[in-house]
Design a protein that fits this description.
The protein has 17 helices and 13 strands. It is α/β, with parallel strands linked by helices. It is globular. The model has no long low-confidence stretch (mean pLDDT 97). The structure holds uridine-diphosphate-N-acetylglucosamine (UD1) and uridine-5'-diphosphate (UDP). Uridine-diphosphate-N-acetylglucosamine (UD1) binds next to helix 1, helix 5 and helix 11.
Length: 361
């Protein structure tokens, strides 16, 4: 079967890595289309190299812009690619603008769409990701849900049950496949002079945090309070780098925190595994904290991964006050949640390949 996979942003490269392997093993012909939404070496190429992902057949080089500009440019390019390749399926991942454009381009050309990581909801329509997910799920012919919570969300939206498959989380597959390599090959702890359990790892990039001066200031000031007691490492997403520069917070952040460039996946896993705590607004990083059995503080008002909070591994901390963030981080260090795994058995990718094989069009 011919599958056109649309990716464009960092978490999608990580999700695609185990699924592409499984599709290849199952004998599918996969064509990878990169929208170019993320383009810095540290946001894109590093993952293709480290995770041995096949080179994209083409890159639309959309780059950055407003939501309308990016999505419109992607739509034109993806539509052309679908007409050229005539795939049996278009495969999309997660909730970015690349996901939305892939879904819309395919459904308008009557090509079936399969959505990996379907059914996630924050119930906050101010988030661009929430709109992208709702649209993608509603037009998808096949929905691969990672959790029972996601299944329930789709059921509430009356998505026909026969379209939905509970497969587990492909990010868990990725963590299992690449974990050993990260352990062996990453030298990041030595490079940064860090010790196991001797630092807090943080990532921040959500628009609701970076584009709100009060929230980004509370996060930086909160992390600075934490850094008075334990080093804080912050690999800086380019959006956040820009926001800190514009708000004049960059230099003071640099004085107290270990600000570094975005790291590759192997270094990131090594950092996650050895951190005393992770403070993040990332969806993927919240789960990876759990995969490594590291407690997490989520710097948001809500999370799509509610099971992490229910199991006690994650606590929500809306980033409105520096003191509240520092207090939550201090109180979560050392916390151990319930010993359960809601993300499957590490075989989500194989299940996806199998379901696609049994749905020949
Ligand atoms: C996007 C996704 C978000 C996802 C995140 C993963 C949307 C609406 N958002 O957010 O869901 O969690 O990716 O990281 O699709 N930039 C660079 N170099 C790059 C990429 C971005 O400098 O390689 C800068 C640009 O200034 C750009 C800004 O980052 O304007 C934001 O990039 P964009 O892709 O629009 O959104 P993200 O915040 O990365
Ligand atoms: N990640 C990485 N390097 C970094 C920060 C994150 O490799 O410097 C990885 C992280 O391990 C996870 C994914 O990027 O697999 C999460 O992506 P991101 O936080 O950008 O987006 P989200 O998951 O919130 O959509």
């Amino acid at each position: 079967m011919k599958i056109l996979t649309v990716v464009g942003a960092r978490p999608q490269f990580i999700k695609v890595s185990p699924v592409s392997r499984a599709l290849k093993s199952a004998g599918h012909n996969e064509i990878l289309l990169h929208t170019g939404q993320h383009y810095d070496h540290s946001m894109s190429q590093v993952f293709f190299d480290e995770l041995e992902i096949q080179a994209p057949e083409s890159n639309l080089e959309i780059g950055s812009g407003s939501h309308g500009e990016m999505t419109a440019g992607m739509l034109i390019g993806i539509e052309r690619a679908i007409i050229l390749h005539e795939p049996d399926w278009v495969l999309i991942y997660g909730d970015t603008n690349s996901t939305l454009a892939g879904a819309l381009a395919a459904v308008k050309l009557h090509v079936p769409v399969a959505h990996v990581e379907a059914g996630l909801r924050s119930f906050n329509r101010q988030m661009p990701e929430e709109i992208n997910r709702i649209v993608a799920d509603s037009v998808s012919d096949m929905l691969f849900a990672p959790t029972t919570e996601a299944m329930t969300n789709l059921w509430h939206e009356n998505i026909p049950a026969e379209r939905v498959h509970m497969v587990g989380d492909v990010m868990y597959d990725a963590a299992l496949i690449h974990g050993e390599k990260a352990e062996k090959e990453s030298k990041i702890l030595d490079i940064l002079g860090l010790k196991t359990d001797g630092f807090v790892l943080s990532t921040v990039h959500r628009a609701e945090n970076t584009d709100d001066l009060g929230r980004i200031r509370a996060i930086i000031e909160g992390l600075k309070l934490v850094a008075e007691e334990i080093p804080v490492v912050l690999p800086l997403h380019p959006r956040t780098h820009g926001a800190l520069e514009r708000s004049g917070l960059l230099e003071s952040a640099r004085e107290s925190l270990k600000l570094i460039e975005p790291v590759g996946y192997l270094d990131m896993v090594k950092l996650e595994k050895n951190a005393a705590l992770i403070a993040t607004d990332s969806g993927g990083v919240q789960k990876e904290a759990f995969f490594q059995k590291v407690p997490c503080v989520t710097l948001r008002d809500e999370t799509e991964w509610v099971e992490l909070v229910n199991m006690g591994w994650n606590r929500l901390c809306p980033p409105t006050s520096a003191e509240a963030i520092a207090k939550e981080v201090r109180s979560m260090i050392g916390v151990v949640g319930r010993d359960e795994n809601p993300y499957g058995a590490g075989d989500a990718s194989e299940k996806i390949a199998r379901v696609l094989s049994s749905n020949l069009t």
